[in-house]
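Morning - pyridoxal-5'-phosphate inputs below, output right after.
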Amino acid sequence: MSHTPSRQDYDHYMTPNYSPQQVIPVRGEGSRLWDQQGREYIDFAGGIAVNSLGHCHPVLVNALKAQGEKLWHLSNVFTNEPALNLAKALVERTFADKVFLCSSGGEANEAALKLARRWAVDNHGEHKDKIISFYQSFHGRTFFTVSVGGQPKYSQGFGPVPGGILHADYNDLESVRKLVGDDTCAIMVEPMQGEGGIVPGTQEFLQGLRDLCDEHNALLIFDEVQTGVGRSGELYAYKNYGITPDILTSAKSLGGGFPIGAMLAIDSVAKSLVVGTHGSTYGGNALASAVALAAVELIDTPEVLEGVKHRHDLFREHLETINRKHGVFKEIRGMGLLIGAQMSDAYEGRAKDILPLAIEEGLMALIAGPNVLRMAPSLVIPEADIAEGMARLERAIERLVASA
Ligand SMILES: *Cc1c(COP(=O)(O)O)cnc(C)c1O
């Protein structure tokens, strides 16, 4: 009982599919974290765009405690009040007519892809099975979603991959036109690529995908697992573009740290998901749904969403100031509080070298590929924490520059 877990325990007891940093955070509050030694950190990583309201936000803690004392889980043999309330809230706030609840982003995308295939079989026939997605995209780790994802390193080495999947270049409509046809079942796209390097889709590109889908009776699926639930400055990023998908997937920020995913769809598509076609034991779990409902209701308010846009400007100003002094970035981009700083040519591929230096300076950040420093902090991060975090980031970057 008195054993204090250490980083070595990771190597002893856990599968080696991650390579976690040496420090082990044990407590969080707002945008601050503390490790086993009591050292404090500012959190610009946000659990990879998950801790949408920071750590242990009182509204989420209260929702968790209240539901935790009432009812946790029933299975889908019964429905439950929090799941019904969450589904209603999502339908009322989006284009969608129906919601399927699950426990992660990969699962939400798996549901979206299976639904698209089933809709095509129901309405057009078996031949309409092609799924088009994009190089560098990321859609999850199930075998279907890694195969649709555009990073072969995640799908290769596991034997035969699911068929009928084609990849085009992101933000290049011409490359999609070459693949699209009447056998296209769906186009799956992130409105802004997250793992692929924080690359926003252009208005023309996303509109062009919508038009191609309409022309060829295909479904447009927006993967908003990373961009959703306030992250972009709107509840969902599609609202920034005024382009409406047929299916949208959500997870990460949706639960503010509690595992939950959702697939949203229009009625004419959702109706193919008849009894028995799909399911998930934990999907629509009462505890998860109660926390997610509290998160959605708090985030989808003008105060929080305006605050995200304002904080975006602050992040950009700070990063540009750092860059004027040190010239480490080529481009600063993103939407809302999902921000990427692409390394300049002199620091090509060195984004990951910043992370351990930042940790030593008391800052948690992220990368998106080898060349982009990524930030996905709490949507309500205090401005003082932004300023202090940026001072720490600058010290880390000074050390990177000094070591070059
Ligand atoms: C993180 C992510 C996923 C996968 O979500 P999990 O919860 O890890 O399964 C899917 N799509 C996008 C765009 C993501 O960023």
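Note: The two ends are 46 Å apart (CA to CA).

O.
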